[in-house]
């Protein structure tokens, strides 16, 4: 296995367009927003789909983060939770407060 990032694909459930790249939040065919429950899949030709370093830098830079307040999964480049609007820093800080070594020292 290589460490190359592979861009996932998704199919538009509205117009049936297949193989829309994961970077697009909307279908280039009909303009419909990607549904929240859209399933991604890997292209059969992963070599062709591998992102260049430049492309990879444009996509999310790290793992998704889980909002501690509402439990929404957010993209790593999202500064605020899409579910409740909490700032990412707040959520991360709270996570450390709740689960860090300081717990129970009261
Ligand atoms: Zn479409
Ligand atoms: Zn949230």
Q: Evaluate the radius of gyration.
A: 18 Å
Bound small molecules, deduplicated: zinc ion
SS class: alpha+beta
- Poorly predicted regions are none
* Spatial shape: globular
- What kind of sheet is the major sheet? 2 strands, antiparallel
Total beta strand runs: 4
Average of per-residue pLDDT values? 78
Helix-strand pattern: EEHHEEH
Helix content, binned percent: 10-25%
Q: Please indicate the count of domains.
A: 2
Q: Whole-Å distance between the termini? A: 48 Å
Please give the order of strands in the largest beta sheet: 1-2
Count the DSSP helices.
3
The amount of beta strand, in percent, is 5-15%
What are the salient characteristics of this protein?
alpha+beta, 2 domains, two-stranded antiparallel ribbon, 21% helix, 8% strand, binds zinc ion
Set out the fold topology.
Blueprint: E1 9-10, E2 20-21, H1 46-49, H2 53-58, E3 65-66, E4 73-74, H3 88-99
Antiparallel strand pairs: 1-2, 3-4
The structure holds zinc ion (2 copies).
One zinc ion (ZN) binds at residues 67, 69-70, 72, 81, 83-84, 86.
Please characterize this protein's 3D structure:
- There is one protein chain.
- This protein has 106 residues and is of the alpha+beta class.
- It folds into 2 domains: 59 residues, no CATH class; 47 residues, no CATH class.
- The chain is 21% helix and 8% strand.
- It is built from 3 helices and 4 strands; from the N terminus they run ββααββα.
- The chain has a two-stranded antiparallel sheet with strand order 1-2.
- A hairpin with a 6-residue loop joins strand 3 and strand 4.
- The model has no long low-confidence stretch (mean pLDDT 78).
- Bound molecules: zinc ion (2 copies).
- The site of one zinc ion (ZN) has 8 residues, from loops.
């Amino acid at each position: 296995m290589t460490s190359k990032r592979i861009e996932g694909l998704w199919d538009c459930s509205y117009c049936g367009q297949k193989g829309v790249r994961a970077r697009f939040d909307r279908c280039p065919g009909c303009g419909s927003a990607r549904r929240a429950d859209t399933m991604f899949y890997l292209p059969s030709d992963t070599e062709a789909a591998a992102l260049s370093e430049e492309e990879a830098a444009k996509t999310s830079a790290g793992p998704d983060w889980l909002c501690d307040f509402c439990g929404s999964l957010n993209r790593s480049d999202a500064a605020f939770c899409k579910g409740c609007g909490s700032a990412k820093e707040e959520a991360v800080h709270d996570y450390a407060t709740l689960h860090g070594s300081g717990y129970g020292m009261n």
